[in-house]
Amino acid sequence: MKIRQLSSxxxxxxxxxxxxxxxxxxxxxxxxxxxxxxxxxxxxRGNTAxxxxxxxxxxxxxxxxxxxxxxxxxxxxxxxxxxxEQRIALEQAAQRVTDYHRKxxxxxxxxxxxxxxxxxxxxxxxxxxxxxxxxxxxAYPSSVLMNALPAKVAGVDELIIVVPTPDGIxxxxxxxAAYLSGVDRVFTIGGAQAVGALAYGTATIPKVDKIVGxxxxxxxxxxxxxxxxxxxxxxxxxxxxxxxCDGKTDPDWIAMDLFSQAEHDELAQAILLSPDEDFIxxxxxxxxxxxxxxxRKEIIRTALENRGVLIHVTxxxxxxxxxxxxxxxxxxxxxxxxxxxxxxxxHAGAIFMGRYTSEALGDYCxxxxxxxPTSGTARFSSPLGVYDFQKRSSLIQVSARGAQKLGxxxxxxxxxxxxxxxxxxxxxxxx
Length: 431
Fold this sequence. Notes:
The protein is of the alpha/beta class and 431 residues long. It has helices spanning 13-21, 29-45, 47-57, 72-80, 84-102, 141-154, 172-180, 191-200, 217-226, 251-262, 277-291, 297-307, 316-326, 338-341, 359-364, 400-416, 420-427; strands spanning 4-7, 109-112, 118-125, 128-132, 158-162, 185-187, 210-212, 231-232, 240-245, 269-274, 309-312, 330-334, 350-353, 390-397.
């Protein structure tokens, strides 16, 4: 396997790095047209359209709309039927994720001015949220935990899952995770039709306030199109990992950490920054040695050869500068004293500090959310969290005395904008 190597000292380094980071987004007009048609059809015909698309795309014929929903006892049975090791691991992960996200809860607050005017903020949870979960052969119970538990911690009244079951295949792990997370309703539908059903509502599936969770290109396109009708979490790009290493970590560990994201798909990106050139070569040798052990080796190989890179930097200061430019989804800081370098790192979805902190732990059980900004959006976006399921309303209660002063200020500014009714509305309260 040939992973590209670059040196930050090279005169064409910036151009080469920019080329590697770029993902050419070519609009698939056929896909977009298909998604637009499905959404319009679901909006118009509701359950009938959803059942037809489920039969067409998932090869699943349901007798009626009621059959789309799984009974709660089936979720409980899936949880009870798990092998003991899986059940315990799921419970432990769920508890850690819950404990972490409880720290994110925001509370309402207010204060009172000297003139008796009260100002504040009321924090309330969303009423109903829809969670899209990939289904069939792709089973991601960790995604259920990471999306559902913050919503439950936030106090969301009703959490609905849609999960496709192609050919009737149900992931027992996903259903068990849904049970453990306290999900209220589960519907066995997927694709753009499921997004449309959540966004517009049908006679069976209630309209939600926000849609979260990962999906394929059709799901991503549908989420993008219904934004504004409902809220969405984000449109995620390919998985990314960037490792900053001082050269003193076992190269096998670092190679496997790069593999951990490369195995997601061929467009995933894995980057190593190190000031130790010998270490970079050692990681390349480890990657060659370990690749054949990987069941998804062809995906890993393609990702690393097309978008992977091992970069020799002058020092760790420069590594931090380059990392900030990339703004990676996952950043491993595999150095002796990670706390020293943390203030220099401004942009990353999640930062994994120290030699023993593999990114994989964050994916499953460390506690923080694994739904992270990709494609450089960590420059202005944050991980999914409780705050994504809460909203804030401003509170203003002006006293009679406060209305005298504020009325003057508001009227001057309103007249400056040519809005006379605004000015008079403020002045009418003056005694």
